[in-house]
Amino acid sequence: MTDVASSTDNARLRAYLHAHWVGASAGVSTFRRAAKGFPEPGGAATLAALADDVAADRASLRQLMAAVGAAPSPPQTLAAQLVAQGRRFKPDQLLAGAARAAGGGGGEGLRRR
Questions:
Q1: Quick one: which of 18, 17, 47, 16 has its CA closest to 30?
Q2: What's the DSSP call for residue 89?
């Protein structure tokens, strides 16, 4: 294998591992949050177990990344966590709630006619 091919393969591997890391980072927080809010205890336990499994995979992934000279990217990890948190953010509900609090009803004035 040439140095160029080796370098390209290593770059692809690092990119793959980074993508996996980012997904796992978002997955752990999402599964944990879902488990806390799940109404049925059996489903909550399953989601909590998934969170634990993904967290364990993430720990193994960190070791693998270190072995190939890759490191988790803090900005990418933060972005993944923000995206996971953002799924809960519903600006339309926030605006409707503000309109109700101001006595404007359920946000009817925010809708296009």
A1: 47
A2: -
